[in-house]
Amino acid sequence: MTSNIYKIQDTESQVDYTQYRVASSEQGKRIAVASAKGGAGSTSIAANLAWVLSQQLDNRVACADLDFVSGDLDLHLNISANNRLTEMLQYPERLEPIVFERSGVKAAEKLHVFTGYSQQLAQEFWPDSAAFEATSIFCQQQTDYLIWDIPSFCLRDSVGFEAICSADIRIVIIEPTLASIRHTNQLLTQLVTDHDQQTILILNHTKPEKASLISLADVNQAMGQAVDLVIPFSPEKMLSTATLGSQVADDNGRLGRVFKQLGVKVTGEQQAASSGLKRWFRRG
Questions:
Q1: Helices (H) then strands (E): counts for the chain
Q2: CATH code: domain of residue 121
Q3: Where does 136-243 show beta strands of DSSP type E?
Q4: What InterPro entries does this protein map onto (predicted)?
Q5: What strand order describes the sheet that includes 145-149?
Q6: Any domain includes 18
């Protein structure tokens, strides 16, 4: 029998995350983006979602990278990274609004990016659960949405696993491979969903669809459910996000439409309510 690598704690000792999600109108929603197996494009998806929410749907957004060693969220959003996120997680008792403004790098209007990148190849710091929750709630109080880009390796750790468990919206990325399907099934089995939580399953074609031996129908059958969105194989456009900081969410083609649909699923808003139109009504 295959052991379940995602079962970090016994049920009796698991934290009740409801206290963190009972948010007032002053607290934004928490989004966790992760893939059960690395290399599925979760950072690209997190960056483009942040762009859609902030630039196309006119929301205040914080996007944070939990990979302190090999993370590259800064490249996707074309910013100069810092290590302020590490400091925030180390000293959550010092958090106040001015810290948010000074620690986050402004990638665009209403979009702040938080990183804690180390200059070392070894993991020098890792937060505890209490510090992660305190920092998350603090950021949610400053924004409409907080997006955590969670690397797959830390889902085996209690903090990383709790990060996706506690999110209001969990975005899970899957590839059309046997390994990705198996690990994603294991992860989803452990993600107990409360009535106020949402899980979005995205199939990302990181290889040509014609070359894949596993079809969309095969993935749906193996998962026992239909995926919510399918990202087509678009290496040139996705590469531009990772290397040039240009967002495919602004593309008018099929790829751009997928990210617009993701924004609608997250917010419940119709894309017709563009940022400019929303601002016009607000002024009126």
A1: 12, 8
A2: 3.40.50.300
A3: 145-149, 169-174, 198-204, 229-231
A4: P-loop_NTPase, ParA/MinD_ATPase, YlxH/NBP35
A5: 105-108, 111-114, 61-65, 145-149, 29-35, 169-174, 198-204, 229-231
A6: no
- One digit per residue, the tens of pLDDT, for the chain of length 284 reads 444 544 444 434 444 444 444 444 578 999 999 999 888 899 999 999 999 999 999 999 999 999 998 899 999 999 999 999 999 999 999 999 999 999 999 999 999 999 999 877 767 788 899 999 999 999 999 999 999 999 999 898 889 999 999 999 999 999 999 999 999 999 999 887 777 899 999 999 877 767 778 999 999 999 999 999 999 888 766 665 555 556 777 777 888 899 999 999 999 876 544 444 444 344 44
* Rounded CA separation 279/55 (Å): 12
Residue 212 domain flag = yes
Report yes or no on 29 lying in a domain: no
Quick check: is 3 in a domain? no
The tally of domains found in the chain comes to 1
pTM: 0.84
- Number of C-beta neighbours around residue 34 at 10 A: 27
Long-range contacts of 124-131 (CB under 8 A, 24+ apart): 124/68, 125/68, 125/86, 125/89, 125/90, 126/68, 126/157, 126/159, 127/89, 127/90, 127/159, 128/159, 129/15, 129/158, 129/159, 129/162, 130/92, 131/89, 131/90, 131/92
Burial of 67 (0-12, 13-18, 19+ CB in 10 A): buried
Length of the chain: 284
Contact 258, 230 (CB under 8 A): yes
Task: Give the contacts of 270 (CB within 8 A, at least 6 positions apart).
Answer: 264
Q: Which domain holds residue 124?
A: 35-279
